[in-house]
Every structure is written in structure tokens, then in C-alpha cells.
Amino acid sequence: MLDQVIIEFFVFLLRLYNLFLMRRLDNFFIYFFILVIFINMSNHNLEISPSNVLSNGIVSFKNGNPVISFIIGEQDRLLLGKSVRLCGKFRCRIQADNVAGAPPAADIVAANDNLFSSARLGVYGAIDQLVWKSQETHQVIEHIKHYNRFMSSYLPATTSLCDGLSHLSETALCLPNNLVYKQSVLDNPAQATTGNSFCISLPCGLLNGTANIPLSSTWGLKGLLLEIHLAPDNNFLNAGEKQGAAPADPTITGLENASYEMSDVSLVCEVIDPSPEQLKQYPASGGTFEYNSISSYFTSINSTNAIVNFNLGLRRVLGVFMNFIPSTRINNLLYEGLATDPIKNSTFAPAQIEKVSFLKGGDKFPLNYDIDYLGTDGITYKEWDSQISRNFINAFKGWATNDRITTNVSNTFEVGNEGTFTAFDELNTPDGGQGFGVGMAYDVISDQGVDFSRQAWGMQMSVGLTTDNPHGVYLFAHSKQTIAYNSNGLQVMA
Fold it and tell me: Can you spell out the DSSP letters for 190-218?
């Protein structure tokens, strides 16, 4: 019976090919449409409601409901990771309340309210943590802390300006211009009653891999539990930072109770029924599943000779990258807490990175030399350093294959050609604002990673800090991990 179906399928393909050769495009497209339907017959679209949302359907950090949980139940199917989307409606309020429905007029963000959020992140800025667990065992599979800061570097390094102006503006409420973002999202009168609709992918190691995710209780991960932790209001929102050589004094008057909220939240995804050939990859007796993972770390620096060390405990590290922010700006409504600016002195003038070296167990690795700032070779002006920027972008995706990027010369370093500090503010940041970071790829050839399980990862950086100004360092490691599973449960092997 199965052989007959296979024969008929190949006859169908041959007929389709002949129609194309004969330029019978009318019949060709009919047959092609039938083929698409046939291929997708085993695909199932799921829409999952959160398991812990209040009866009014509103989730917010301010009102004590900062975690959204979704259960993708155990089933003998495979989850298409890249199909997962978080959907809902988003809006901001000046005076939030617990009443469902449209807020009073006083709650609506007006054009003259000096309220902003990260335009290049949109809804992504509201996610503080992303946690994937096994539904049955609650074993943590992937936990990304500071997810919004991860996306602060990930989006500019993997999406283009055109992406920000097109599909990201529609799905994630992202825009590369702060003023347009404020007028179309934050100040949008429609948000008072209906909110701004969004439907975002959730970039992470587990979902961005090429392998489908087994959900079975006998030959898989026993279902999945997703937890989305919302960011504090003071981290997501800000009072319209304005800065220059001598920064102006921003004010939060009238914005102390500003908040954001989501409603009608759901998770949509696509699962498939595995073919007999696919099932052979997942024996009922138990097996392993390899996936990518993002691990997150935090530290601080405040020295001209900045040293960062972590015992990653990871066997197959593919890349490490980090971004920076002055410590006084973290969870501070006065400033954008999700900015990825260059390291700065207390005057907010950038402190030039003069030299960077990456270490493994104290030895320089993978480069056996320092990355020197090009200005030390006699160039008098300060600007975008190509070596630092290339290695940073390479930590996300191979430089040669990365054809979508927003990070560029004009939005990476905020100094002029003669070293004169250029005033930036929330309304005048090119291409979504600064996308500065430091990073290194460790394996772009074999894609198997480098072992840091027994040797510490480190970075040493010479910085032109002339004043005391501690900076938070958000570090992310991209690695390969393996889950071993059987009827008794599963184990993550980092």
C-alpha cells in the first residue's frame, strides 16, 4: 500500500514537471497548489493560551503579574522551532489601574509626555527572561536572563534597516527612528482602546536550531513549558534621555507611575506528525537531542585595565559577546536602560577601547595577539573600529554569510572625525541608536564549539577611562548542549 502511494506521488511530480516544460502554467499552478496542500497535510497549527493570566487577560509588571506561562503539551509530534510566535496587544499607561478595558483619558500617553522606550527593540524590550523547561519534569532546558539586552545586540547584528522599516515594525513594533516610534506606538491614540497588536518570534538557541524538537513522552522532551518574565517598567520605559558633552538634566515629573501592559496574549506554533523515517531518529528506549543554547552572565568594570573572567562550565562554546551600560542607568527611568552605547566617562564622553585580548585559561585564545585600536597607529580621529566590530558581529553569525545587519559606522560610536563629542539624544539617534559591543567567535568552521568546561573564559581590555564611572557588562555565550532522555526523565549535559 505504501509503495503504491510513493509511486503515485512520483508520477504526480513527473506530471508537474512536464507541465512546466510545456509552459502550461495555468495547470502547473493548480497542480503546484495541490502539492503544497499534500506536503502540509501532516502539519498542525496550535494556538495556546497562557496558563496563569488573570481573568481580565492583562499582564503587567506593575500589577504583580510579571510572568506568562505557556504549556506545549506532550504529544507524539515534532515542534518546528522557528514557527513559535508570541502574539497579543501592547500599550503604555501613565496611570495604570487594575480595571479591564479602556483606561480613562488620563491614562493615555500623550504626545507632550516625555515618555520613551527602545525603538529598535519594540516589544522585545519588555522581556526580561526567557525560560524553556520540560513540561513533565520541569528540567530547565534553556534560561536566558537579561533577554532584552541579548536582543539589543542580536537584532542590530542579524537584521537590516529594511527589516526594521518593514516586517519588524508590523510584528514587533520596532522602528529604527525614535520619533516615529513614539508617535506611531507609544502615542498612538488607538492603543487607548485596542492596543498595538504584535506577533513576535522568540530568538533563542533552542528555537533557532535546525532540528525539530520532539515533544513525545516516550521519545522526546515530554512537552515544553515556556516562561516569559516581564521587565520592570523602569527598565523598559525612560523619560527621554538627552545628553551632550555636559548632559542636560532629564526629568521624570508626571511619569513616576508610567507602565506598560500586554493583553490577549497567546502562543502560536506549528507541529508535524513524524514520518516513519523520522521516528527512527527517536528510539522509544531513549536517546539524545542536540540543540543550541544561550547562557547569560553579568559583571561590572570600572578600570582602565578591565578584566572579565567567568567559569562558563560549557563544553562546546561557539561564540561569546557582551554589551555595556553605565551602572547608574540600570532600571533608572531617567535613561534608556537597554542602550548598548560605547563605554563612557562620567561626562558621558566615550572612553576609547585601546586594546582587547580574549583568554582561555589565562592564555590568549583564539587569537594569539591583541586587537589594537586602529587609532594607536597614528590616526588622530576616533571612530568605528573595524577589528572590534567585525569580531563582535562574527560572534552571532559567520561574517561571510551575514547579509542582514543594521550596525554601521554612524550608529556604533558617537564621536566626530576630530574626536569631538557629538550630542545624541532620544530623538536623534541614527538607525535605531548605538549598537556597540565586543565579542569573539570560537568555531565558525566545524560548528562543534570549544571546550571551556575546565578552563576559565576571560577578556582583558584597555579602556581610556579618565573618571570613575562603573559599567554593567552583560555577557552571553552561545554553545551547543545535549539532552539525554528516556522513560524515566531527561538530563541536560552542558
Answer: GGGTT-EEEEEE---HHHHSSSPEE--TT
